[in-house]
Design goal:
The structure holds two protein chains of two kinds. By secondary structure, chain A is of the alpha/beta class. Chain A has ten helices and 13 strands. In chain A, helix 6 links the parallel strand 6 and strand 7. The chains are: A alpha/beta, B mainly alpha.
């Protein structure tokens, strides 16, 4: 594989269930060494896309490449280079933790035993305990440990941290997933579908927001933070009806107005020149706020000021 | 042994051990010497084991993980099917070995050798058929339970069709020099052929298998995921009750499909008789026996365990209706369905059989026997409900019910043996002459008394599953204990009745 060849390449992916489109014309490219966020509401088509990537589902139409190769044709070779944590983690209930890991390790050529023991200790997973006796969160931990120990080039995570408590979640994201990527920067790629966007805030390099099977937005995380802004403006009298280019949402509380704006320029200057507020503060949005702003129906400025 | 092979053997081991044990118990009773009597049990054994090969991945929700591992699907298929072949084919091998070991002198007898060869072929051909066809059905239907039940019915359908073919095309031994050749050509070879075809279809099905859930064809049983919005959207009242009833009826899809398969088998048998009027009467009655053998247990086992295994039970218990109300609806819906599917549906078939054959040719399977069996169906469903209330999956409940019933029957046979040898049971006069309610000549009052005994037993048994449902605990050990108590209670009622006759 060429060093700069995309790890994941999806073009015009369509996947139908009967007449319903689960994914409808999705295109995205994931470069090597990136942490790619795949966001969307429930039923937006995230899991379907991931299953198409892994050849667990056949696309209706469209083109999918993993490491430049067709996952339907080179399934086993490609899966040797990736690890997947599904959204519903399940193990054979009669196996112990140690047996489960031994079983999963038997599929792999690379299996880092040192890291395995380290992570089992770190997350206090008893290797003698049966998988059927593990809590939901412990099962997720076990799945993540198994995925990381295989040292894959691509880690595909579908809602990976939904069952974890906040402490373990943060620890896992920062110390395990972050460390996994940093141990071989430029080669290790993460493709993560999650609702807990704020937890992955520092890790995500690029993201796509999916809505009803279509990509609503694909942006670099830094570019997104520069594009999406929150402007808090205080007026001396009752605020006027504000209409700015790229205005997504406006909320009024007394004489203060809070605006969410998508603009590559400097909307705060335009606001200051046109409406002359007493005070004007600009903040960058978090990825979670950008996600909400991108998918929330637009509120008209006059609605906002009338509120 | 490699972990993957070990896992595959381990997954099938509990079921296989159970069947080996059963075989070891049945061989000394010479059950396998008579073709026909053991066959439904044998079909059940191999169908369940063959369905477990892929069915366990569905019930444990591990198939997605397995398919995402870096191994080709063809290799995964072989890694699952080879241990399955060993485990399934070992059962007939164990039976045959035990038969030889228990009476080695009989091997010298030419008649025994001929019968023995027939038995061996029948055992192996059914095993090969199940090994090929049932995994295909399981992957196709995405369910362990559906795979096992439909595999069982397909075996029955094949058996009926082949016997009809025998009666139609080859009424006499005719072209065949020996009975073995006849048996092999007409029964065994097609079974092996179907097995091979099923194997190829199953392999193809698995190679192109797609992991789908939530939004479309998630498999046959996904329909049981019921319209919860509909259920939740109604306040407890008139419509809330209706919603629960609707949900309960949706839950029993497998029972309804088993009924549809029974109708198809009956149609096939009726058509076969048109072609071959000399067809054996018992063969015509066999689909009904098999249907009654399966239906009450399947319906009873689905009542709680199916919701528990799909994770719906907790949601169900948070609904506004009380647990008692929910239990009453569950029990009534299951029994109403059993009445419709198990009693009313087969009645036309019984009318047809009665018009076609004399009582002698039906070997005692007349109307009296028919109506006598009906309370037994409800009793079987009640026992299965008890198992269902404590098991984590419907299949566990089904196996536990059959297993416990098998042990109970063996116990009864032991009692009879004890009576025959020591007269220990004489105080109850447990002699065939006293059991007139078991014959067609029994008085109507005797039959009503029988129904009363069954009713008492059913009501006694149904107290326990309600208690379990209210507590929402699953424990196989407790299930075994409670099943033993249920059988003991039934036996006590029976003995009291016999003593009072």
């Amino acid at each position: 594989m060429n060093q700069n060849e995309p790890v994941i390449e999806i073009k015009d992916l369509v996947r139908k269930y009967g007449r319903e489109d689960a994914v409808n014309g999705l295109s995205l490219t994931v470069e090597p060494g990136k942490c790619y966020g795949f966001f969307g509401r429930n039923g937006a088509g995230k899991t379907t896309t991931i299953r198409c990537l892994l050849n667990l589902l056949r696309p209706t139409t469209g083109h999918i490449r993993l490491f430049g190769r067709d996952p339907a044709r080179d399934e086993a070779d490609l899966k040797a280079r990736l690890a997947y944590v599904p959204d519903q983690v399940a193990f054979y209930p009669w196996m112990t933790v140690a047996e489960t890991l031994e079983y999963l390790g038997s599929f792999r050529k690379v299996w880092n035993q040192d890291k395995l023991h380290l992570l089992l200790d770190q997350f206090q997973l008893d290797h003698r305990k049966k998988a059927g006796q593990l809590s939901k969160g412990q099962k997720v931990q076990l799945a993540l440990v198994a995925a990381v120990c295989a040292e894959p080039e691509l880690l595909i995570l579908d809602e990976p941290t939904s069952g974890l408590d906040p402490i373990v979640r943060r620890e896992f994201i920062q110390t395990v997933i972050g460390a996994y990527q940093e141990s071989d920067p430029g080669r290790r790629t993460i493709f993560v579908s999650t609702h807990l966007i704020s937890e992955f805030e520092g890790l995500i390099d690029q993201f796509t927001i999916l809505e009803k099977g279509r990509a609503v937005m694909t942006l670099e995380a830094d570019a997104a933070r520069q594009t999406f802004k929150r402007i808090r403006a205080r007026f001396a009298e009752d605020p006027p009806v504000i209409d700015l280019p790229g205005l997504l949402e406006a909320r009024q509380a007394g004489r203060q107005v809070e605006l969410i704006v998508r603009s590559a320029g400097q909307p705060e200057k335009e606001l200051a020149q046109t409406y002359r507020p007493q005070e004007c503060v600009v903040e960058a949005l978090t990825l979670e706020e950008i996600f909400v702003a991108a998918l929330k129906p637009k509120r008209m400025p006059n609605e906002a000021t009338m509120a | 042994m490699k972990p993957r092979w070990r896992k595959e053997f381990r997954a099938l081991l509990p079921g296989a051990l159970g069947w080996w044990l059963m075989a070891a118990l049945l061989v000394p009773l010479q059950v396998f010497h008579q073709a026909g009597t053991f066959e439904p049990a044998w079909w059940l054994a191999v169908s369940v084991l063959a369905a477990a090969v892929f069915g366990q991945e569905f019930s444990a929700h591990t198939l997605e993980r397995l398919l995402s591992q870096p191994v080709s699907r063809r290799r995964l298929w072989y890694e699952k099917m080879l241990p399955a072949a060993v485990m399934i084919l070992l059962i007939p091998a164990v039976i045959i070995l035990l038969m030889v070991l228990l009476d080695p002198s009989e091997i010298l007898d030419p008649q025994f050798r001929m019968n023995f060869g027939l038995i061996a072929w029948r055992l192996f051909s059914v095993a090969v058929f199940a090994f090929g066809v049932v995994p295909w059905l399981t992957v196709r239907l995405r369910s362990l339970l559906a795979g096992a039940v439909f595999g069982l019915f397909l075996l029955n359908l094949l058996w009926v069709s082949l016997t009809a073919l025998v009666s139609w095309g080859f009424p006499e031994l005719g072209y065949f020099a020996t009975v073995q050749q006849f048996e092999f050509s007409i029964r065994v070879a097609p079974a092996l052929g179907c097995g091979a075809l099923g194997y190829l279809l199953g392999c193809r099905q698995f190679l192109y298998f797609q992991v789908v859930d939530g939004r479309g064809n998630a498999g046959l049983l996904s329909g049981m995921a019921v319209d919860w919005q509909w259920t939740r959207g109604h306040k407890p009242g008139r419509w809330g009750w209706l919603a629960l009833v609707k949900k309960e009826l949706c839950l029993h899809q497998v029972g309804a499909l088993a009924a549809a398969l029974f109708c198809l088998t009956c149609l096939a048998a009726a058509l076969a008789r048109k072609l071959a009027p000399a067809m054996d009467a018992w063969l015509m009655a066999a689909p009904l026996f098999l249907y009654w053998f399966i239906l009450p247990v399947v319906i009873g086992a689905m009542v709680v365990a199916e919701e528990r295994s799909s994770g719906l039970l907790e949601c169900q218990l948070t609904l506004p209706p009380s647990r008692l109300q929910q239990w009453i609806i569950k029990t009534l819906a299951a029994n109403a369905l059993l009445l419709i599917l198990g009693v009313l549906l087969p009645t036309p078939w019984m009318v047809y059989l009665d018009s076609c054959f004399s009582r002698d040719s039906l070997q005692g399977f007349g109307w009296a026997a028919y109506w006598r069996t009906v309370p037994g169906l409800f009793w079987g469903a009640a026992v299965a409900m008890l198992a269902s209330s404590l098991c984590r999956s419907s299949l566990n409940a089904i196996l536990l019910t059959y297993g416990a019933a098998g042990v109970f029957l063996l116990g009864l046979m032991g009692l009879q043996l004890l009576h025959a040898t020591t007269g220990w049971f004489a105080m109850l006069d447990f002699a065939p002459g006293r059991l007139d309610w078991l014959t067609d000549d029994g008085e109507i009052t005797g039959r009503l008394q029988t129904v009363g005994i069954f009713l008492l037993a059913i009501l006694t048994i149904l107290v326990m599953p309600y208690r379990n449902f209210r507590r929402n605990e699953s424990s196989p050990r407790r299930a075994l204990l409670q099943l033993a108590a249920a059988f003991a209670a039934s036996l006590v009622f029976l003995l009291i009745y016999l003593a009072s006759c």
